[in-house]
Amino acid sequence: MSILILGLLLFLGGHSVRIFAEDWRKARIARMGEKNWKTAYSVVSLIGFVLIIWGYGIARREPVVLWSPPAWAPHLAGLLTLAAFILFPAAHAPGNHFKAIFRHPMTLAVVLWALAHLLANGTLNALVLFGAFLVWAVLDFAAALRRDRVEGVVYPKGTLSRDVMPVVAGVVIWVAFAFFLHGWLIGVKPFG
């Protein structure tokens, strides 16, 4: 479990600098240059990500069961992850309603993804992993909305034609992942 926690500290810690230390981040970027900052940030994130995968895999070998998820949990998790898979590309597609309404759809996607996995899993390692991502995403979402208010950021109204790409991309990737890739990569088939 210690490798998982170290990975979470590195990955989410790096991703939390903007939430908790924006002035420090700006000073580092000014001192190092944006390219060097992004390189260092990427290296720390990648190391953290690898440690998360490795640590979670180790922790799954001898799971500590905290609760048994209800029979409906995987179905609700499927719906929540479908929404997350739509919101994630919406963050990168300009002029869509998702971005206009939610402002930070990628962070909201992480909230839904983490919540879905907390509902469908009842082990200590799942609680640590998905609980950490859920707490981080809620804090990040609140910080991003606060930054928007301070900076006076206004998101343009979305158009229906710009909604199509994130919906189609999200559904296609979700189907591929839920029915094929999740079992192959993670070792768990969400739908049997």
UniProtKB/TrEMBL annotation:
It is a multi-pass membrane protein. It comes from the Bacteria. Keywords: Membrane, Transmembrane, Transmembrane helix. Residues 3-190 form the NnrU domain. The chain crosses the membrane at residues 40-59, 71-90, 102-120, 127-145, 165-186. It is found in: Membrane. GO terms for cellular component: membrane. It comes from Paraburkholderia hospita. InterPro entries: NnrU_dom. This is NnrU family protein.
